Amino acid sequence: MPVTSSAPHRGYKAIHRRLLLTLLLLALTPLAALGLFCLDRINTIYNEKISAGLEAVTSSKHRALDTFIVERVAQIKTLAFTHPYAELSDPARLSEIFSVMQNNSRSFVDLGIIGIDGRHVAYVGPYDLRDANYADTPWFHEVLRKGVYVSDVFMGYRHVPHFIIAVLRHEGGRSYIMRATIDMEAIDSLLRRVYSGQHSDAFLVNEQGVLQTDSLYHGKIMGRFRLPALSFARNGVLTMPLDAPADKAKGQNLLAAMMRLDSMPWVLVVLDDVGESLQPLRQLQVLILCFVLLGGALVSVGAVLCTRRLVASLAAADQKQAHIDARMLQSSKMAALGKMAAGVAHEVNNPLMLIQENAGWIRDLLEDEKPENMQNYQEILESTDKIEQHVKRAKGITQRMLGFGRRMNPGRTEILLNSLADQAVEMLRTEAANRNIVITREFDPHLPVILSDPAQLEQVFINIIDNAIDAIGKDGSLRIRTETCESGARICFADSGPGMDEETLKRIFDPFFTTKKVGEGTGLGLAICFTILEKLGGRIEVRSQLGQGTTFCITLPLEPMQDSQEEDAEN
Amino acid sequence: MRVLFVDDEVEFLQLMEKRLSRRGMEVSTAPDGQSALDLLDASLADGGEMFRAVVMDVRMPGMDGLETLRHMKAKAPALPVILLTGHACMGVAVQGMDLGAYDYMLKPVSISELIIKIEEAARSAV
Questions:
Q1: How do A488-495 and A550-557 pair as beta strands?
Q2: What's the pTM?
Q3: CATH for the stretch A194-277
Q4: Where are the domains of chain A?
């Protein structure tokens, strides 16, 4: 089979590109989607969890603070209403009572009984407030009005931030006020237990935005804290991010939980640095990202390799198909031409026979004549000879044509290809030697024995060697090499002739195609070789380049195909 | 020596008749299988001289050479028949040999070879 045919160009680069793109899209899209989904879900769950944690802490502290204040108020009220004025106005007795109170819990700083004129009747505590007059202070007015009053934090006479619980008591036409100052330490310790992270903070603030306790990071007691403009009318915890630029600058991402106290018009604010709490989330996100990127890289490499392999297989399959197509084309061409050749040969044979018989009849008739009586006797005789000679030549051609068209079952004889090649070389050795052509043999000694038709194979070998000798002309070499191959055995004939151009190579196996002079070749030799080898289940390939000689390679199976039926040329 | 020549190519028949007659043979010709069988029947009925050999083309319109051969062999089994064929076709030749043909020759044949073959065939039948 000529090797000039090439695989059809199918734009492998475009196929490669499209296939790769599709594969990447199909593989990477779900991966990316999964990654994004995971990140989003984990983010949401984490945020919810952090918010819930903060809310729980806030809610619990809220309860504790409320309970603390309510209990303290109840304690003062109980004290005021269970002890007579006489007892309470006695500093020694008051001191005793205060001592008992402080034994249970150190929640108060001091305790005083204040007359309706605003001056202390009795006082127990660390400050000297004997000269203080509260008649004009806001809390004094409030307690007179409400009976029980808990103040916001204020400085007062002691010039220390504090807040008080005051209870108004009427006893036997006398009114007085019991006033206790809450120990800020007690409140602070309650709040401080909230802190979990490095930047956590918890404090109380009144509705005017005045801090009622110290904040770790947002100002001292009685400083200002800008509450987000939200209504605290509702119950429950309100959670929201705190967008303080200063915090952002510090790389903090604060989340605030706020809850209004039930006992006081104060708001408990708990702040937590989400950034800190989200640290494990960040690590998880990085991990997921790494997994997705690694997965993506693996998938991409896989897709590239897979695509490359697929396209390579496709190209190989195309190449193979192209070879098969070319071979099929040549086979069908051969079959059609073979049939035609046989038909032509048969039709020509009859007239040839008549020409020959008529020439013979002329010769018969000439025998009756006396040469001396016929002027052109000799000429006629010579012409008759020539007619017979050319009929013989034409007969040779028709014989070959019939041979080309003929389909015969191949014989099945055990053949040593090396010996058969030797025989063929022997037949043409003299001819080669006369033209100074060296025939070298490189035979594989381990060549398998094949089952084939020795006579037909020898005809093929002789034909190819003969062609090679003709192609070389004079002074050259012919190398015959045999080797074992996958399907059986292979024999190659490489000559040092002038080689062939592309056009010749394409038509080399076509019947009646010849490069020899008119009358020297019928153009059937290689066509016959092709059909013989096809019948034997083998194949013939040719490689040639102008100026570089020609190589014919014949591959033969270990045994011929079984399915061939004798297809006689038409009877 | 009486020879029957069967071929659908009439011109060829005439030439062969003339050429073989010149060489001392008595040639009867038939342009098809049926005529050949008729001639054979006539010669058998006559009780006269039998054909010593038959030269017959394989490919003929109507009854072909092999068919005619089968009938001839049924009538005169000993009669040697030489088949002429325009094909280098072993299949037909082998078939003909199986049916009892003496031999086959490829067209075109040389007159001398044909005469040798006819004489051989005639001798074999004696």
A1: antiparallel
A2: 0.48
A3: 3.30.450
A4: 83-186, 194-277, 407-571
